[in-house]
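protien #1 (seq + structre)
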Amino acid sequence: MTIILAPMEGLLDFVLRDILTRVGGVDRCVSEFIRITDRLLPSRVFYRIVPELHAGGRTPAGVPVRAQLLGSDPACLADNAGRLAELGPAGIDLNFGCPAKVVNRHGGGAALLDEPEVLLAIVSAVRRAVPAAMPVSAKMRLGFNDGRRAVECALALEAGGAGELVVHARTKADGYRPPAYWERIAEIRSAVGLPVVANGEIWTLDDALRCRAVSGCSALMLGRGMVADPGLAGAIRAFDADPARAPQGLHWPELFPQVAAFWQLVRRTIEPRHQHGRLKQWLNLLRRRFPEAQAAYDAVRTLTDPRDIDRWMATQPVEYGSCDAVVVSV
């Protein structure tokens, strides 16, 4: 059983990776994508997006982080992968699933799922450019407008040398609308010989169990579900350890110290004008699982001055100053 924390541009950055891996249950993370266009990026760009590179490619909790690259030029991706490999990530992941229009317009992300031959060229070039011992994985959706070429794309990624494949069980056209078509992951898994990880619409323990049953995958990648319920990975592990004992899940008094630690990290590492938005963004997702998060969200919703949020934090039952925030160098 492997549980991977998903890359989520604009949400799941090094700050939230730090907090969620402290909570526990996650085996590995993938960074948000590093966009590669037509030049070799300086090392500082890789360090900025994946500051865990300063710590051996691991979060402060010790969870390894693979750095994700996104682009469409095999040679340029290979050059950048080679430089990135020198910085010591836990592996390199390639993004063939991003549905963002600005990315797709430039031939990146999910747009490449209409060109399996380019997928093959990219993975082959990157695999050759990095040390043999460094893992190279890929993440794909079922397709762009439809999923007719999903198996063909997966086979191309395998032929290029990918050692693991994460499949988000929706097309680009599906976006993030439910449902996720986990049965299509089973088709891909049957066609390839490399490990396949199931991803998409896993919000609860029941979702995770059904996804594993339908897809046939033991490994899962958790994204918004883990952000909304940081105890989800732990609940899955607790069920696997003893299915007869219902997992208790994470309660708000246990989680709030991590929310406070998250705010401390945001205050230290994020530009001030964006700080209030980052806290509201997470609380907004936490409302799905925790009624107390709704009250917290309502309390800070109109606050834009970080100092006002500091004062609100100081009024909460858990002492704000007692939270142990570990800052990764940026």
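ok now protien #2
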Amino acid sequence: MSARSYGRSEFQVAGRPVGPGHPCFVVAEAGSNHNRDLPTALRLIEVAAEAGADAVKFQTYTAEGLYSRHTPTMTYLKDQGMVGEGDSVWGLINRVALPWEWHQELAEHARDLGITFLSTPFEEAAVDVLEGIGVPAYKIASYEVTHLPLLERVARTGKPVFLSTGMAALGDIERALDTLGEAGCREVLLMHCAVNYPARFENLNLRAISTLISAFQVPVGWSDHTLGWTADVVAVALGACAVEKHFTLDRSHPGPDHPFALNPPELASMVTAIREAEAALGSSVKRVTEAEAELYRLGRRSLVAAGQIAKGSVITRSSIAVKRPGYGIPVYELELVLDRRAARDIEADEILTWDDLVR
């Protein structure tokens, strides 16, 4: 597959520029961690805003629109005790789905707190709900990369799309991007993702971020399911323009997304770590920085008089000491100093300059 651009190099979400050269767009993923309790959902929005995230995101689906009742239960849900004997993944999803009538209140609460409200639609009817409350962008889950009717419906809104790529080969991504583009969407950010809950570090393949950037010429981010935030900082260092991370009020709450989510102080720490990483990345130019200027002048070494040097004396190696500070004759000019004569009487430990020497 030859590299070509599938979209714009940057775009805006609710007035916030997203793309290379801009601060990482941090999405605090509430997912199903509202526990189907409205006060909890409202509090999650507050926590995301307090942590400094750019957006808070929920998920919009119904069990009926998402799963066949005959779908086998995923192993990780059994292992975590989320689905018991005689239960089903359909039943679990039905219990944790966000009531659609909550969306307006949640979006208004986010707006009041100055944080962008987003939600992932998992069916076409969900897009209609989210359009009704005016979301500024859409997130497509990894599972839906091949759900072309959903991609077409989202693209027709004219809004930017964050497309997760867990479990997807490059051909799957190319097909999805073609579908979005043909339906009118050119503002796309690909989210590299490892779909395990929690994901193990050895399965992340974060270098694939660079591959996606090169292959598709669009902004690329990282959707994370690991414990902690090490992977998020690494992803930013590798060029991720957005990071999505699950969070919860309490990891001990029952539900599929709580165990691997960050608690409120951890979410704030992750945002801080990302911002610190961005600041640390700085420029690719290797030079003396403004912060180094004083120590560059005072901490480097230069040539000083090893003892008293009388005017007219020949400068020999024993005449010279190498000491700090660094604003005298540079040490690498030592050979050019030897065999010259002192232009004046020089005291011991004086810092030598070219004006002190004559041929």
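The domain at 290-358 is CATH 3.90.1210.10 (Type Iii Antifreeze Protein Isoform Hplc 12).
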